[in-house]
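Thread: DUF3006 domain-containing protein, structure

OP (GT): Posting the sequence first so everyone is looking at the same thing. Length is 87 residues per the record. Can we get the structure tokens written out before standup tomorrow? I want them in the notebook alongside the other entries.
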Amino acid sequence: MPKRKRLQARSGPLIVDAIEGDFARLERPDGTTVDLALVDLPESIHEGDVLTSDGEIDHAETERRRAAAQAHLDAVNLPQTPQEIDL
């Protein structure tokens, strides 16, 4: 197995923002992005995955973030109860 490049996470995890062709766009904690070749990343990588500075998928953090995002969407999409209007 080829050795992967060490990612420069700086002060936190990297998030896979998008996968396009042979490259993945990773978002740094400060919001800037960097494109890396997919051959330098785990084969099972998906958009939304959290990567450690060693280039490994942090499955626990990925799941935590996905669950938090889903909970937010669920809350936003709750049916609205009509409120009475007094005149």
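GT: Both are above now. Quick notes for whoever picks this up: The beta strands are 14-20, 23-27, 33-37, 50-51. The first strand starts at residue 14 and ends at 20.
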